[in-house]
From TrEMBL, chains A, B:
Enzyme kind, highest EC tier: hydrolase
Catalysis performed (reactions): a monocarboxylic acid amide + H2O = a monocarboxylate + NH4(+)
Keywords, alphabetical: Hydrolase
High-level lineage: Eukaryota, Fungi, Dikarya, Ascomycota, Saccharomycotina
One term of GO molecular function: amidase activity
Name of the protein this chain belongs to: amidase
Amidase domain sequence ranges: 106-557
InterPro entries: Amidase_CS (IPR020556), Amidase_dom (IPR023631), AS_sf (IPR036928)
Residues that bind substrate: 211, 237, 258-261
Short name of one Pfam family: Amidase
Gene source species: Wickerhamomyces anomalus (strain ATCC 58044 / CBS 1984 / NCYC 433 / NRRL Y-366-8)
Active site (record annotation): 162 (charge relay system), 237 (charge relay system), 261 (acyl-ester intermediate)
Length: 570, 570
């Protein structure tokens, strides 16, 4: 695959390492934890305002069995005012509230109604906090009425949160059953700063068991659905964020990403997502597997999802205006910088049609081609990007994920004995699986990552490219529990480069996107991922592409993505 | 020592872990490498322009045996023009050359003369490149004459380089005998950017075996001397830089620091040194023990030494103007930022009189008191800084240094079989010594470091302090091969905070700095370090203190250090 191979030749060895040694303890699970799961779901169910649900006559009997496009339901069900408000993006909402054309209370009510539909159709909610949101909006309205000011740039903007950020006084479980008693004492730092900027929290959204699937299944709330086709996956791990933003049940959401967990859901649900470089958004108070060790070889980042590029910028600008680096030593003191919008002819963009590991499915290839043609016609300089050691990057990522031999995940799982979701089983086998890394392997992989980053920097310089446009995943939203290769996204976690996922405007089309049944897979990854392509299943599903910028260039990447989006929307 | 202890209770256990397993191979060493060492030294010796040496009548017979203050020699020996030029600091030199009041050629010649004295007296040179410097200066003068411009902000400024940075076409050995054949193909990236800014290279300076002593002994050029008292150590590992800057044989030098290697030599020789936070100055092409693994738990930084705070700023400004982050992916894109000079009354400074591990020697305590009094009188707000978990930070640092079980150092040493310097033997035993860290220990220590950094950030916020003034080491320059505790400096490598070492204006004085023979050591470190205090040996030696700023605040820290220096110089 590459001259500079690292350790394992995946083209010859099986896709998966030896099976994981995790053994569920179903007796313990049924006895002690299933009741807690039931109670959790009852609470969730009781928080749903039934008066806002779509009538069952509009829906198929079984949304999990019938491929149903739920995207049109809100327009059918909602009153005009609610629809008008919820069609606004976050930037427009912030402006209108600041200009007193809209109140925070009207706004949150509209989004509560639409979020109710979103949850009914996609199971995007982990916890519903509508009363909390209504109270908060009222306080904000009163503040504005009294002082004439907003509390900050997000004053009154409804903001959905992936569940694994600590939320004052509420359980934070990160998709682990064993954490169902884990009540947070305060907000995660990032949540707190968003709150301080005026954001209104009202819903916490789903994530898969272990937070490490490009899918949505957990043992607490089950599986999520893709609103474009309810039998398909919304992706993951920011599963609920992808679905709720697509349904416009939320204008702005906070996700996290260590291998593609913002970008996958953004792409699969046809919305925008930003995976920033590390050290700009605080991780303090984000619950995951491990809390007493730190593996620096790969690092999670938080970032926003939304329905427009402007909202991603609003998020970053509002957040960084709070100078989070004065509160979190990990962060780099890099205030948001205003950069000019480039002209199309200022941009040189490399196009990635194949990463050398897994060839994209036909809808993705077609989306790339259409976008490339439009950009070229608008004067953007286009080059073909030859992939560089992607397999090695994937191997570094996989090895880093399980550098502790999965002991942290095991600790979380064993406490409840919960069964493994199929993709957890996969996740626990990638890299060196339960074996983990020795100290020297960890340091060697870290070094390999540094070398690879430097090679990529040199390639960007040498090829004169500031941005790439790449598949986010090889296909559209997948069937549940199928994706095993995330190399198109995890590459950029290893590189720590800025990624903006955007809707290409292209949808899967079974009448043109034929499967090449004669294609000969180059390796076991490709055998699997190309094998799961199903034109019928992908039909009608959005293709999300990703614009990749250099490291720490969120400002420039968002501006470039806006130019691209404006061109392809014409 | 601290409630939140990590692994080892050093107050109960011996100072050192089990002895190192390294065994010199003297047969190999004598046969294959001693001839190479001889050839290296002959070349060094031949490059010394004998006409510039001080007459032996001015010097004691044996500078290593007789405590001799060499600082006055240049004024006695040098012609007036040479003396005038070499008394200028780098900023003045750059200005005068840009204004055509001075040529690069005149300047380098003057510093060559004075550097010759510095080397004669302190053994500060690892490699003399005077002809190279003369040629380079001539080219710069011609360029300026022809174009009317300078090539950059360091045009014509002589700049000394610690040896371990790659130097095109020259051997780079990093103090390891086994690297005596290692000819560099190009400059280290930082050297190249300094060169591009107009710096004139003319000398490469000494470092100890392994680069990990607060001292100067290596098997290639032997031991260096402190110019204030030739029997004493110049410190390390930027040993030669400390000595040559003090002698004004160089106006500006480049050192490196992973535990105190810029700050120690700066303090012991009475000059200025900046240890920036990580990721501002490129490490590419800095040779050390390991080249195929990366331990992120502790990271080296490069930084300047000079005779004035202005020169440290000139260095940073000139260097960052070259946008090194576009060439080295590790670097943060943080251009130099102009910040205002604070008034004395704007500053709140915490004073560290004791780190809770090793009590400073009397000259250091006296220096702190004198500086504190002067600052207080000038209106600076002073608080006493209670030490926080310093022992734990030292343990993390020590564990991280040898996370690979010293295998990289062993590789370097075993190739030549060279004998261990006494402080290498010490170094190979700190942390977990040859045992190294398991993967989980490494990740646990990394996490502990993150926790500690966050605690420090909170303490700075809570105590309302922007800067600390702290001992750089517990005493003045030590006798050779004695320092075993670097906690006053390595703490800030673990914290990754900005440090500016500056001359306090105070010198050891045996008539007042009595040793408290009844002092009861709190732990084995203190027993050792307090035990080696010798008022007679410290008499007349400068005390260098360190101003500590927050992370990534080199700009503000240098401005604050300038205010402090102006106040204490009155």
């Amino acid at each position: 695959m590459s001259a500079a191979k690292l350790f394992i030749d995946h083209s010859k060895e099986p896709l998966l390492a030896p099976a994981t040694s995790y053994k569920p303890n179903l007796e313990l699970y049924e006895k002690e934890w299933v009741p807690k799961i039931k109670a959790y779901n009852e609470k969730l169910s009781n928080a749903i305002p039934n008066e806002y649900l779509a009538p069952s006559t509009l829906l198929p009997d079984d949304l999990d069995a019938t491929p149903f496009n739920a995207m049109g339901i809100p327009a059918t069900v909602l009153d005009e005012k609610t629809l008008t408000i919820t069609e606004l993006n976050a930037s427009e909402i912030a402006q209108k509230i600041a200009a007193r054309e809209l109140t925070a209370s009207e706004t949150i009510l509209a989004f509560i109604k639409r979020a109710t539909l979103a949850h009914q159709l996609t199971h995007c909610a982990m916890e519903i906090l509508f009363d909390y949101g209504i109270k908060r909006a009222k306080v904000l309205d009163e503040y504005q009425a009294k002082t004439g000011h907003t509390v900050g740039p997000l004053h009154g903007v409804p903001l959905s949160l992936k569940e694994h950020y600590e939320f004052e006084g509420h359980v934070t479980h990160a998709g682990y059953v064993s954490l169902l008693d884990n009540v947070s004492e305060k907000f995660s730092l990032t949540s707190q700063l968003l709150y301080d900027s005026g954001a209104v929290f009202y819903i916490r959204t789903t994530e898969p068991q272990s937070l490490m699937h490009m899918d949505s299944i957990n043992n607490i709330t089950g599986r999520g659905r893709n609103p474009h086709k309810t039998t398909m996956s919304p992706g993951g791990s920011s599963s609920g964020e992808g679905a709720i933003i697509a349904m416009k049940g939320s204008p702005l959401g906070l996700g996290s990403d260590i291998g593609g967990s913002i970008r996958g859901p953004a792409a699969f649900n046809g919305v925008w997502g930003l995976k920033p470089s590390s050290k700009r958004i605080s991780l303090i108070g984000s619950i995951s597997a491990r809390e007493d060790t730190t593996c620096e070889a790969i690092q999670a980042v938080l970032g926003p999802l939304s329905n427009s590029v402007d909202d991603l910028e609003l998020f970053m600008k509002s957040y960084l205006a709070q100078r989070p680096w004065e509160l979190d030593q990990q962060l780099f003191p890099l205030p948001w910088k205003e950069v000019p919008t480039p002209r199309a002819s200022d941009l040189t963009i490399g196009f990635v049609y194949d990463d050398g590991v897994v060839k994209p499915h036909p809808p993705v290839i077609r989306a790339l081609k259409e976008v490339e043609e439009k950009l070229k016609a608008a004067g953007v300089h286009i080059i073909k990007w030859d992939p560089h050691r992607v397999y090695d990057a994937v191997e570094i990522a996989n090895a880093a994920y399980s550098s502790d031999g999965n002991s942290a995940v095991f600790d979380r799982l064993e406490k409840s004995g919960e069964p493994l979701a199929p993709l957890s089983e996969h996740y626990l086998q990638i890299g060196k699986g339960d074996k983990g890394l020795s100290s020297m392997e960890l340091q060697y992989y870290t070094h390999s990552r540094e070398v690879l980053r430097q090679e990529y920097l040199k390639l960007f310089n040498k090829r004169g490219v500031d941005f790439l446009i790449t598949p986010t995943y090889v296909g559209t939203a997948p069937k549940p529990s199928t994706i095993k290769y995330w190399g198109y996204t995890s590459l950029w976690n290893i590189m720590d480069q800025t990624c903006v996922t955007f809707p290409s405007g292209v949808f899967g089309d079974k009448s043109t996107d034929f499967k090449d049944e004669s294609y000969k897979a180059r390796n076991v990854y490709e055998e699997h991922e190309y094998g799961i392509y199903d034109p019928e299943a992908s039909d009608g599903l959005p293709v999300g592409l990703t614009l990749v910028g250099r490291r720490y260039t969120e400002e420039a990447a968002l501006k470039a993505a806006k130019v691209v989006s404006d061109i392809i929307s014409v």
